[in-house]
Design a protein that fits this description.
The chain is 80% helix and 0% strand. The chain has 456 residues and is mainly alpha-helical.
Length: 456
């Protein structure tokens, strides 16, 4: 309880900032600014749209998540279905956390290498070692504490960059001139890229709504009321933040009518337009944001590996000291696996999508329908997780370089963000069909018992 939930000592506002810091990372800022540079206002929906929609959905989930007490998602799954379903879900969640951590490693490595002129590999190892060190020894309390400081720092950094972006660009008047010259008709239309915007929201929302690191913060709240407060607070914090970075990206169009190949807008503005001392502060703030998201993924992934796999499956009589030790070993495993993925694939947004697809296709329906309805069965849940995860794994291996044919239908599109649509549909269809075919009195009683436990 102390290592992974900090004994529920944090007030709601602290957890709200930690929640916001977990989702609004440096990777989100970098991606949103780059997309805004090329696409204008509609770039808000790439990261901001899913964050807001997920936050609204979680307003309704917060009460139930906290009322399950200290139960993790796999523990809920075991109580609702069985131990086998729990093990499968734990493996999928751990897989997601490794991939999500890798996306932040890629963002941090690109950011550091671009700023200092280091090689990608050296920058990657330096950043990961720093995050691994304090994540391994501090647990959840350390993660939340550093989240608050890092989040405050990124706000300062964004304000600095925004001020100098206005100064360097000359304002939106100059941006409009470049927009006109390039013929960017929908640059100021926030709904100008509606099809992509919709699928960005679908792609990330299904995963983020059930992100274990956010559920961990709800579980760490002192009470149900605090869980609801932290959910609202995080939503209020996140809404304006993405407008900050989108505006910076749009202003950069007047500063860089032709963006240098392979460079991130945030790095360019900080290097070329922000005075040295303030540039250092801005750089550190964005790097801190990347690190705050990375440490969350590593900490939550180590929680799953320690509690839901090691403790429950291999060492049921493990002492507190043994669990803490294995938690630190798990953090190391997370870091090593993340580095491997970060070296194999260096596209930040692509790896971030890969992570989301894992949860959306493999876990969403068994978890959500399991805790809100009584008709789902154990075989339905297991079948949905296995088939959904297999669908994702097939294309995951393709992305890692394995020569396999794509099995994604042509509609609505074979590339991301459209491809995740079929993973979500497959997971739902398998869950519904398998559950309807395996209804029994035993399953009905199991569901009733689970819901009674929640009511109590």
């Amino acid at each position: 309880m102390d290592y992974f939930l900090a004994n529920r000592t944090f007030p709601a506002w602290v957890l709200a900032f930690s929640y916001a810091a977990s989702w609004f990372g440096g990777a989100s800022a970098i991606i949103s600014a780059d997309k805004a540079y090329s696409g204008g206002w509609s770039a808000y929906f790439v990261m901001g749209g899913p964050t807001i929609v997920s936050g609204i959905v979680l307003l309704f989930f917060a009460k139930r998540i906290r009322m399950f007490g200290p139960l993790s998602q796999p523990e809920m799954t075991e109580a609702r279905y069985n131990r086998t379903a729990r093990i499968i879900q734990s493996i999928i969640i751990w897989w997601y956390m490794v991939t999500w951590a890798a996306s932040q490693m890629i963002g941090a490595a690109n950011f550091v290498s671009g700023f200092f002129g280091w090689s990608y590999t050296i920058a990657l190892f330096v950043v990961v070692v720093v995050v691994w060190f304090y994540s391994m020894f501090g647990g959840f309390k350390s993660v939340v504490t550093t989240d608050i400081g890092q989040f405050a720092w990124i706000i300062v950094a964004l304000i600095i960059v925004l001020i100098f972006a206005f100064k360097g660009s000359g304002g939106f008047g100059n941006v409009s001139k470049v927009v006109s010259q390039k013929g960017l008709e929908n640059y100021y239309n926030i709904f100008g890229n509606a099809k992509y915007s919709l699928f960005y929201i679908i792609s990330f929302t299904f995963a983020w709504v059930i992100s274990a690191e956010i559920w961990q913060r709800f579980s760490a709240a002192k009470s149900v009321r605090d869980a609801q407060k932290l959910s609202r607070g995080a939503l209020y914090i996140n809404i304006p933040l993405y407008f900050f970075v989108v505006i910076i990206g749009m202003l950069a169009l007047a500063m860089y009518p032709e963006k240098p190949e392979g460079q991130h807008i945030m790095v360019l503005v900080i290097q070329d337009y922000v005075p040295p001392v303030l540039a250092g502060i801005s750089f550190a703030g964005l790097l801190a944001a990347l690190m705050s998201t990375m440490d969350t993924a590593i900490n939550t992934g180590s929680l799953v590996l320690t509690e839901d796999i090691y403790h429950r499956c291999f060492k049921k009589d493990a002492s507190e000291a043994q669990l803490v030790l294995f938690g630190r070993i798990s953090a190391t495993i997370m870091a090593v696996c993340g580095i491997f993925i970060s070296i194999a694939i260096k596209d930040l947004l692509w790896v971030l999508w890969m992570a989301s697809d894992i949860l959306a296709s493999g876990v969403f329906w068994p978890l959500i329908l399991g805790i809100y309805t009584k008709w789902g069965t154990t075989k339905g849940a297991i079948a949905s997780m296995l088939v959904g995860a297999a669908f994702v794994l097939w294309h995951y291996l393709i992305d890692l370089g394995v020569a396999l044919p794509s099995i994604i239908p042509a509609w609505p599109g074979r590339s991301w963000p459209f491809s995740i649509f079929w993973g979500i549909v497959i997971g739902l269809v398998v869950y519904v069909v398998a559950s309807l075919l395996t209804q029994s009195e035993e399953e009905r009683m199991k569901a009733e018992k689970f819901m009674e436990r929640f009511a109590e």
